[in-house]
Amino acid sequence: MKIKQFEDRYLSHYSYAILSECEKKIVLIDPSRNPEQYYEFAREEQAQITGVIETHSHADFVSSHLEIHQATGAQIYASKHMQPVFPFTPFDDGDIIEIGHIKLKSLNTPGHSNDSISIVLEHNGTDKAVFTGDTLFIGDIGRPDLRETQQNAAALREELAEKMYYSLRDKLMTLHEEVTVYPAHGAGTLCGKSLSSSKSSTIGNEKIGNWALQPMTPGQFISELTSNQPFIPAYFPFDVQTNIKGAPSFEESVSHVRISETQPDEITRETWIVDTRAEDTFKQGHLPHSVNIMEGEKFETWLGTIIRPDESFYLAAGSSDQLVRMIRRSASIGYESLIKGAFVINEADEQNPVLDLDHFKAHKDDYTIIDVRNRSEVEEKKLFENSISIPLPDLRNRINEIPTSKPIVIHCAGGYRSAAASSLIASETGSPAPVYDLGEAVKQFT
């Protein structure tokens, strides 16, 4: 038996291949959008992919389960509660997949979502591992509200939180303490709030160190789980629906994006340009109606937060190689379908003003200061007494709240979010007031 863990560090996502070495068969769990790494593993092991298990309908990335089924004939397994459109085999409490000496046993563990399952791996008659999806993380658990947009979302979150309480105690905590825990996400995901950077754990260690597995009443658990959760990006409900239907082929879909070495003539101010170049390059020259979402660790998250899934956009980069990378990264959340065109920027006339840092330090009251950090960051420490807090995820909906009678200075915690926010505000306000990005200089005030 062999367990291979794959990591998408940009989305803090873990997927898995379980290999029966005696039968040369592989079952995948929660594959990411590009299936090539799983095909490569199968070739290396001279094995056949015979199954794909989805632990739930994912909100934060697009899965390749349908493409793998179509390419290899592998059966897709998921809970009946997912109600998927694609062909699948229900995989719920009591259902078992057998490959060689391995048994994969389904546990219904609702809480993150109603269709969440965990998979216990039994080898030679002994439970060895559990793949917990977004139910049990290392040091934390999955949040219960990623797909709920209805008016009664708060009530639904509490209902799911109560289900999570019992899923953990009645299902996962009953496993042997030596069983290895393999989650679908690690530190950095928005699917929880305080995940460890460890990539695996054990049931015993989680009973000791995970807050959610400590003795408490259901009410205490629900209150803690539903409080102070991170924001929900705009693309999450879109990805849930994409995964329930099944996404098109990765390579085929990205190949449909039109790439140009020059700026397309048909660009209008009604369509956003997502400029992925470095902040200083963007400020020296960019196109109108551009938002600077730089190539970085969290590009996908901010792309899917700022650009809504019912919009289209142009993708711009500094080179052809960068353009290809960013198209493929956009596809990991299903956004390649929204790209009207992709092009390399050679010349652009729009420029951002440079902040006189000494003047700002001496005369902060002469500026409107916008803090685009998350609410929890502001509550922990406000950096400027007279700043206005508008978290970046809320910015497009609250742009009219920004006073334009004075020069505007934007800050976050390190410069990445403020680069996106300042470009967004400069494009949207239409005000003659200059918009400055404090950028990395914010560290001088922390």
UniProtKB/TrEMBL annotation:
Q: Does the keyword Ligase apply?
A: no
The record places domain Rhodanese at 267-355, 363-427
Provide the GO biological process annotations: glutathione metabolic process; hydrogen sulfide metabolic process
GO MF term (any one): metal ion binding
Q: Which InterPro entries match?
A: Metallo-B-lactamas (IPR001279), Mito_Persulfide_Diox (IPR051682), POD-like_MBL-fold (IPR044528), Rhodanese-like_dom (IPR001763), Rhodanese-like_dom_sf (IPR036873), RibonucZ/Hydroxyglut_hydro (IPR036866)
Keywords for the protein's UniProt record, in alphabetical order: Hydrolase, Metal-binding
Answer whether the UniProt record assigns the keyword Cytoplasm to this protein. no
Q: Could you identify this protein by its name?
A: MBL fold metallo-hydrolase
Say which species the protein is native to.
Answer: Arcticibacter tournemirensis
